[in-house]
Amino acid sequence: MNEIFQRVSIRKYEERPVEQEKLIRILKAAMAAPSAGNQQPWEFYIVRDKETIRKLSEASPYAGCAAGAPAVIVPCVRTKDLRFPSMAVVDMAITTEHILLEATSLGLGAVWLGIAPEEDRVKYVNDVLGIGDRLSAFALVPVGYPAEERPWQDRFDESRIHCVD
User: What is d(CA 85, CA 34) in angstroms, rounded to the nearest whole number?
Assistant: First the structure.
């Protein structure tokens, strides 16, 4: 799976829209993620409205790059009726990684902007999107055609591997 070795965080985007088909394909990949007990705690917002994106870009000191994205995907976790609620954050991390990998495979750039577990950020994004108490924002993932090139970083460190034979 070459996308693992090609994915980089992209924070600058061309001023062209991302096709709906590509956004749906990204979310299809996201929903293919494994989850504890198959609870699939996720729901997603696709945000293309420029004013809403601008507001989302103010969710944290690190989210400013979202303002230039043609689309922002907001993975949200269900807050009720989960079989394994303590595992939902792990499930959400996996689904968000699937978003990043599929965006890469489609020639798009994306970056994971942390929202959860920072309560003030979660509340802010929930308020901007009018999310009720049934869902809670997990992250912001700006997506678009890259307007920057960044080299992939090899993070392999053999000293972090421990074998028990």
Answer: 15
